[in-house]
């Protein structure tokens, strides 16, 4: 087949212009743009036209505390997840491929387990008569059961466990792409292990940390099941408040406004991360 014939066949198979993108654009419009516009419209028309729902959310101290709790929990969960996931990802990056595949499979398998089942398992483990408190008391480390549930501690433990795979996956890819010879060269030049980590490994792994951290933070902002079961009323998060507004109070206007604020914050964080990554690439990672 000649070159001209191959080009003509390829042209027939690939629609020109926006024709090839039309199905994807229709799906995005139906399942993302239309619901978001409906959410925005409901937030400014229910119960009356205006911005009273947004004024109530941003001006009331009770709602402000829920917003603060949401961002606090998301920040704490993201920080702890990064600290736990980094050594695990580094271990996966340097261990033999066969063993790494087994460990990697165990990590991925945990993602396929039902979320509600995992959360209930942590409820059993963290309660006052649970395995963790009983083991600590049996060893004599504590005299009274620790309050590990219905507070920020329980929410953090449960959500970090759930978020770990989403942090490990991008980190492993980034760490495997780092040339091991750079660390050996640093050691030959007299750098200590901590210096090699701080000045070489950590800067080179920042794209993976940023990608995983953003994913964990954004997912934590909208999490509902785990905070509702492991947290208390003093640690209510925004997703739980939205569910109460719509399901219990039937206040669709206020709930839609809260959901739209959460969406705007999420998109702003994503745009900021894209800009920071773009600036870093443009400056050569300096």
UniProtKB/TrEMBL annotation:
It comes from the Bacteria. Keywords: Cell membrane, Membrane, Transmembrane, Transmembrane helix, Transport. It is found in: Cell membrane. GO terms for cellular component: plasma membrane. GO terms for biological process: transmembrane transport. This is ABC transporter permease. The lineage of its organism: Bacteria, Pseudomonadati, Pseudomonadota, Alphaproteobacteria, Hyphomicrobiales. It is a multi-pass membrane protein. InterPro entries: MetI-like, MetI-like_sf. Belongs to the binding-protein-dependent transport system permease family. CysTW subfamily. The chain crosses the membrane at residues 20-41, 62-86, 92-113, 154-175, 204-229, 249-272.
């Amino acid at each position: 087949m000649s070159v001209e014939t191959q080009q003509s066949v390829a042209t027939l198979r690939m629609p020109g212009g926006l024709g090839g993108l039309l199905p994807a654009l229709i799906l995005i419009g139906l399942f993302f743009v239309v619901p978001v516009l409906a959410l925005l419209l409901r937030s400014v028309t229910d119960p009356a036209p205006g911005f009273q729902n947004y004024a109530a959310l941003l001006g009331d101290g009770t709602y402000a505390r829920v917003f603060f709790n949401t961002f606090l929990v998301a920040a704490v969960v993201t920080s702890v997840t990064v600290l736990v996931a980094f050594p695990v990802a580094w271990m996966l990056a340097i261990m033999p491929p066969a063993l790494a595949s087994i460990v990697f499979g165990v990590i991925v398998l945990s993602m396929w387990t039902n979320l509600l089942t995992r959360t209930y398992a942590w409820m059993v483990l963290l309660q006052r008569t649970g395995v963790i408190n009983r083991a600590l008391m049996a060893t004599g480390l504590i005299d009274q059961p620790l309050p590990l549930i219905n507070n920020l501690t329980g929410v953090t433990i449960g959500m970090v466990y759930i978020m770990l795979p989403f942090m490990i996956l991008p980190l492993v890819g980034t760490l495997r792409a780092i040339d091991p010879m750079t660390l050996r060269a640093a050691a030959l030049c007299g750098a200590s292990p901590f210096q090699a980590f701080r000045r070489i490994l950590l800067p080179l792994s920042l794209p993976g940390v940023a990608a995983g951290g953003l994913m964990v933070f954004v997912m934590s902002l909208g999490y509902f099941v785990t905070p509702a079961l492991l947290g208390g009323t003093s640690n209510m998060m925004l997703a739980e408040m939205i569910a109460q507004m719509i399901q219990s109070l039937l206040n669709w206007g206020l709930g839609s406004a809260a959901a739209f604020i959460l969406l705007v914050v999420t998109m702003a964080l994503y745009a900021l991360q894209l800009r920071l990554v773009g600036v870093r690439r443009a400056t050569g990672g300096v």
